[in-house]
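Thread: "does anyone have the structure for this chain?"

Original post by V.I.:
We have the sequence but no experimental structure in hand. Need at least a predicted one for the grant figures.
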Amino acid sequence: MYDPKKVAVYKKQLGYLARQAMQERGLEPYDGPLEVRMQFYRPVQSSISKKERDRRLLGAHRPTVKPDLDNYIKSTSDALNGIIWADDNCIVGLMAEKFYAEEPHLMVEVRRPTCEQN
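Reply from O.Q.:
Generated one for you, tokens below.
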């Protein structure tokens, strides 16, 4: 499947940073069921008023613009395959959100499920 250039660059950079973080901690990709939380922070547009900028930074107005949240999720989970988790099919629970921030960034939290149902 073809990735647009921006997506390919994102995946490559994210993979590099994740691999570096895992190596620094002496960790191997997690295998087995995982719960993942992803928070995507995108920049506030420069063409808005100060009042609206403040509302967005405080979370009163959340991003409803492209890229879609599901595109962020798919690109991120693909980029972290074989690095953070063995394969993204290990993800059994997922929470993802978009926010505005002064500086764009991403936070990914990974944990094993606290209890599994039979």
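V.I.: this helps a lot. The domain at 5-111 is CATH 3.30.1330.70 (60s Ribosomal Protein L30; Chain: A;).
O.Q.: and The longest strand covers residues 91-101.
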